[in-house]
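Teaching assistant here, posting this on the class forum so everyone can see the example we discussed in section. The complex has two components, and the goal was to see what a joint structure prediction looks like when all of them are supplied at once.
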Amino acid sequence: MSESSATTSARPRRRVVNLPAHVGPTRASAYVCEAVSCLSMQSHDVLLGLGERVAAAGLTDVEVKRVGCLGLCAAGPLVQIPETGELFAHVVPDNLGGIVEALAAAVPGGERVPEAPFFSRQLRIVTENSGRIDPESLEDYVASGGYQALRTVLSTMTPAEVRDEIARSGLRGRGGAGYPTGLKWNTVAKAIGSPKYVICNADEGDPGAFMDRSVLESDPYRVLEGMAIAAYAVGASIGYVYCRAEYPLAVSRLHKAIQAAGRSNYLGASMLDTEFSFEVDIRQGAGAFVCGEETALIASLEGGRGTPRTRPPYPAVAGLWHQPTLINNVETFANVAPIIRKGGSWFAGLGTATSKGTKVFALAGRVVNTGLIEVPMGTTLREIVFDIGGGIVDGRAFKAVQTGGPSGGCIPSEFLDMGVDYESLIGVGSFMGSGGMIVMDETSCMVDVARYFMDFCREESCGKCVPCRVGTTQLFMLLERITTGEATMDDLAQMERLGHMVQRTSLCGLGQGAPNPIFSTLRYFRDEYVAHIVDRVCPAGVCSIEPAPVST
Amino acid sequence: MARLTESNVKIAREIIGRYPRPKSATIPLLHLAQEQDGYVTNEAMSHIADLVGCTAAEVLGTCTFYEMFKMEPVGKYVINICGTMSCALLGAHELMHHAEQQLGIRAGSTTPDGLITLEHAECQAACTEAPCLQVNYRYRFRVTTEGIDQLIDDLRGAKLTEEIPPHGTVARVRQHIPVNVGVGAVDPDTVSTAPAWLAVKEEAK
């Protein structure tokens, strides 16, 4: 069932898709993006309309199909003709003639339209199937090389060999902290206790990040395959996907994928006719950001309040129901199948010395091409923002890019030529996080940005530990004073002291990271804070500060 | 209204059967209760406590932790306007102000006719489509003030009933794993051996 929305839809949304069956080999295809963003702009009507037009034109060797996210969300609805590389942007259901003509003229292996930098600068591993396969079709996934890795693993590799391959790849956790995945799998495999569990963390909540939603919506089987391989490698038979309940489309596509995979023996008992059994259940969250923290997520799965606990013991040793539990992020699992298929050394050859492979980023904010991108680790911010992102909206000046969500920081223009990996981001006072990138121009006030993130942390603090519960509120109030022009320089000093205290003494990553937006903006934009406090002006003109009372 | 209906109790028992510890089913059952009544009633919480074998206070404790669970009646449609970074940069506050004006209510309250509840929300993960909102967790992207007016009109005119289910229904899918098939129900305390396939695999090498 499509869980889409449309801007104007008085009519029923669900209509049966009766796309014309094409006979014989496909000469050309039209890939219609049906990810949430394009769906909201009537891409479903485009799909149906295109099907009708193609049939009416008698193009029996043309396939019209629904695919997952093509990435360039800013230009949706998108239709691509993969045979020629032509991409149609802002397609409207009433004007499909151009696409039909292009389809009629397309020659496989013929001349290709050069790719826009938005696409050519990317390297797609996690999102390789996004925009190429029908996310609701198991056949499509299998036809594009899906489940090859699982087959190889089950028929020719021992669990230890799988873990070695992942360790060799150098893959690190894509949820943010970057813990080596191979090491984690080994810990779970060697932990004493049975049964063991595998959890896929899809409780994505970082402001600015939506790659997990997109992967689940565009290629759900890849995540299931990664989980099955992980379960095999660590000796687990049960998996849970903990997904935000705010993602109905992701949940329903994942649900369909689990059903279809189960029917075809890619999940369940005696998978692919081996002794291995693995089952997956979806758990929906209920709107608590902190549940993305692994111990909080487990507490929530166990039916309690989603509050974190102290580690150790780590979930790898004592997790769900005190059993050894492997928790990885959606994107981490999505990397597993390609690593098995192409080898750990191939993956280790991509990226930087310490960060291997690629990273999916959600590019948003004041940038021309907003959307989901995937680039090798070590790609510079300049390439991401200017080459792929197409620069700043309205030709304004770049000011900063915010990464890492509420635990991250703002990176100023002097670091534009820095390659992005886990270590380099920490070096400049930010954080990889789950991959949100919000680009800001001169119209953004850095103090206001820090205030936003602190408001978020204050709102989402679970309240279990005092430094985070009280500290984030106090920090927020201090930032409020600054943005309204009521603060003194003493308040600034107080804010820094308090920030360090919250950072050092909070229980989990939420509190420990909460002061980061303040520290990073203070590090690079201290003059803006001073301007708010001393001169009582907001240089970006965002904060409304009453002029200083004239003393008589 | 109130306790889970007979058919929902059946669903509840199936969900409980999927877990080794009944209490683990608390959150799915709270979603079920909210789907039934539009919010979670005190009676439903007591009922869930009976079903999962804990105290009503524990269910209440869990319920209050999660933003999505409402403990008082809310509108048939809950509009969540995202106010985080990307949306805020592109005018989410003006949108909220406009919605408050149009509905004649403040954020966090419900229209007198019980149709619409207006709320602030944190990031809804559609930052490229800012400003965005969700109606009963169904997206609306790049929302303008005119878009808000249209949405309110459509909701009042019951034009979106097919697209947007009443508040409480999250994804419109319900997993069906019968208890006798579900592996998850095995009590970890009663299992001490590794899965059989593991030994087979290791011996094979």
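For the discussion questions: The helical segments of chain B are 6-17, 26-37, 42-52, 56-65, 85-89, 92-103, 145-156, 196-204. Chain B touches chain A through 74 residues (CB under 8 Å). Think about how each of these relates to the inputs above.
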